[in-house]
From TrEMBL, chain A:
It comes from Maribacter caenipelagi. Its EC number is 2.7.13.3. PANTHER family: PAC DOMAIN-CONTAINING PROTEIN (PTHR43304:SF1), PHYTOCHROME-LIKE PROTEIN CPH1 (PTHR43304). Residues 268-319 form the PAS domain. InterPro entries: HATPase_C_sf (IPR036890), HATPase_dom (IPR003594), His_kinase_dom (IPR005467), HisK_dim/P_dom (IPR003661), HisK_dim/P_sf (IPR036097), PAS (IPR000014), PAS-like_dom_sf (IPR035965), PAS_4 (IPR013656). Residues 663-876 form the Histidine kinase domain. The chain crosses the membrane at residues 6-24, 31-50, 62-81, 93-115, 135-156, 168-194, 206-224. This is histidine kinase. The keyword Kinase applies. One of its GO terms (molecular function) is phosphorelay sensor kinase activity. Gene3D superfamilies: 1.10.287.130, Histidine kinase-like ATPase, C-terminal domain, PAS domain.
From TrEMBL, chain B:
Residues 5-129 form the Response regulatory domain. The modification 4-aspartylphosphate is found at D59. It comes from Maribacter caenipelagi. PROSITE patterns: RESPONSE_REGULATORY (PS50110). GO terms for biological process: phosphorelay signal transduction system. Keywords: Phosphoprotein. This is Response regulator receiver domain-containing protein.
Amino acid sequence: MYVVLSTLILLLIVSTCILLLFNLRNRLGLAPLYILLGGVQYFQINIEYIEPYKILGEFPVFPQSIVLFSAMLFAVLLLYIKEGVVSARTLIIAILISSLFIIGLFEISALQDYFIRNANRTEDINFTLFPNLNFKIFFIGTFLLFFDFVLLTSIYQFLISKIHKEHYFLILFLSLWLVLIFDAFTFHTVLFVGTSKYTASLIGNFIAKTLSAIIFSLILYIYLKYIDKVFETTSFIANQNREVLSILNYKKKYLDLKIEKEISEKKISAQYEKTLTSISDGITTLDSNWCYTYVNKQAGKFLGRTPESLKGKHIWTEFPNVVSLSFYNACINAFKSQEANISVEYFSSYGKWFENRIYPTPDGLTIYFTDITEKKEIEKALVESEAFNKGILSSLTAHIAVIDKTGEVLAVNKAWNDYSVKNGGHNYESSSVGSNYIEVCQKSISEGDQLSQNILDGLRSVLNQETNHFEIEYPCHYKDEKHWFSMHVEPFGTESDKLVISHNNITQLKIAEEKLERTNLKLKEAQRMAKLGNWEYNPVTKEIFFSDEIYQIFELDKNSSQDLYASYKSKCIPKDQDALDKLVSNAIKNETGYTIGYYIKSNKIGQKYIQEVGEIVKDENSNVFLKGTIQDITKDKLISDELTQSNEELLKINTELDRFVYSASHDLRSPLTSLQGLIQVLEMQIDTSAKVDKEPIKLMSQTIDKMDKFIADILDYSLNTRKELTHEKINFEALIKSSWEDLKYMDLDYRPKLTLDINQTVDFLSDPKRVSIILNNLISNAFKYHDKNKTNHFINIFIVVDGEKVVIDIEDNGIGIKEEYVDKIFDMFHRATTLSTGSGMGLYIVKETIEKLKGSIHVESKFEKGTKFSIKIPNS
Amino acid sequence: MKLKEIMLVDDNSIDNYVSKIVVEKENFTETITVKSSAIEALDYLKAKTDNFPELIFLDIKMPIMDGFEFLLEFSKFTVDKKENSAIVMLSSSINNADMEAASNEQHVIDYLSKPLSKDKLAKVFDILIQKK
């Protein structure tokens, strides 16, 4: 009983020590465990020959040996499971080495002890090398031990890959038990086969080792399951994947794998780098101090920096502008909450939109960012475009609706709704979204509305694809106002089962059309009344347009199928046409207009006279054509012809009259001048014989002069009334001198003082004959009617010429005019003095002539003091 | 100064008579030739071998050939014949057109209104003297 108890205590101590040292492997390493197990091995070798314990009284076993051996297997299996092949193998080798080494040391010290004793010769000793060691047993045992280890790991590995891990205790037990049984069998067979104790020892070992296997596997199971909890972890799973004989061939494979791993790691890291670099997103990683630990190429590009220059730099120091953005807060939040965060924001300093995806990592943040500027711009453009379309639709004045094939109104624009509201439910317009357009039409048809019928027919024809467009104009008068609408129906895009209906208000157009029509009527009326028509003519194609009135003038049938140009030509007189053709071709060449009058044939009145006005017009392609008017001026022509004839006759009469006046004046004067000549001769002859009264001769001469003057006056008067005005340069000095010379012959005894003052800087143009008639009369009056009671007679003539007029003052100190006669002196045949020798024609002629020249005359006179005539004649 | 010959051309014999007396009275010339028509005067000049009259008083209005027609014929004479000959129009016409036409004639030196008088003759002589 004590034996069993002490064995159990031994077992517990050993297993506890193994597990304790193993559990402390992270702090102490595995060396203490190796040493412990080496020690155990040595101990086990050296206790082989102690007294065996007999189980059940007959089967001898060595309990210490069994416990220690099992403990070693237990340790190897533990290491194999928990630390892998390498550690287990190291342990195996360590155990073997330590056992060999310790045995060696003991044997050498024993040999040394023998030699010392021999030298002292204190006693004779029979030397036995390795007295405690049975070599056979040792080598077989050691070899077997090594083999057991290999077997243990192999069996474990085999079982773990075949048996479900829920039966893990079974795996552990079987591994240990099979190895222990194998060892016992092999050991006993090799050493004790054929001996008396073979069978009993074998049975004893079987029983003891089975018990040992149960206990150790139980301890191991408990340890693995509850103390070192790695059951479910990767190391356990990795165990399943080891090869069965991995304990032997692991090394080579390990090296191969290591090389392979390095290669693939390199590959992966290169791939990884390449991926990170080539990815279109910017990627940066930050450590917990906000410093960059990684920046990919794309991120560098976005940030405008090289990745190398950013590594290790503090993000908020490098990019201080960003701190004001929500990106900053997103980063802080992600870091604090350890939750991923996304921020989409416009980075004004880069002029770009970025989407930042911020992921927390245990030691910082990873930020992926994408340039979404283009996307944002497209979004913006899309929004704008939608707003644009919506805006356009709303701003259209046309009422637009989309209906489906059942007539349901699917969409309307603003104008449509506005109209419905304004019009308070008209037949065609009151239907808003959701109502049925066709039903509204049908309702109106049932009320007898023909227009609705037409509209419905049109809608259906488009719906049935009989036509792709329907259009109708209709009046819609409401609230005492006239309105017209034009309705258009078209398929909605390519979906032919939907229709777009639009109503356009064409009231203005209609009003304009009506106005135009009225204007056209007025024009036509005006043309009819004026007998004037307008035409257009293309000289290349000979195409002609005539307004209605021209058809009337030419007496042509508007509806005739005959060629208009030929019809027109047939009405013309060839002689006139040649002239017209020449004129037209000249006009085209010189791009000028023309006016021509010519005769055309008329069935009604023989011939008509028309006036044609033409103009060259160029259209937008620089094609030349003619536009103009034709007016029937037959009546005017007749009148003007008559007038021309009358004028010609009048001219002839005038000329004849002129000739007559001259002829008469000459013929009348001729005898008078002869008489004057005879009187002169008579005077000369009687001059010599004295005492003859000369008075009668003198009176005869005066009478003849008076007659002559009268004839001259009549001639002047006749000249003034009929003769055209002329415009010639007037030499006042010469005119007055000549007039003065003539007067001197009139009265040889009278010599008044003449003062002539001419102030002239510009030429004076007028009719010289008429000016001389005026001056001759006034000067001769001043000369004739001098006051015989005065001695210092004078005549002052002042002439002032400027660009506009001449002012002539003729002043004398003659007999003057009595006040009561001053107003009458310009009357025909009025003579204001008994002294007058004239006909009473002179001043009348002066006044008439001045009026003819559009001048004026003014007289100041004082009886017996003198007279002053002031005249103004315009400078023409 | 005394001229060799003055010719009077006028169809009116009274005027010729008056003019002849006035010219004679003033004693300006050695000979006075009186012709009662332009044709007669032309014939005379054509037949004449020595110098033309130095002064011719010419009426305008005459039957068959008037004064201006005479002037046209006169202008056809060679220069050497007429170079010392001057013509004065002596007319009872006060038609401006006549006066203008006369002033444009090469040989006409003055236009006088009938009747010829001592003063008018003196004026003509002044012009002649100036011309020479």
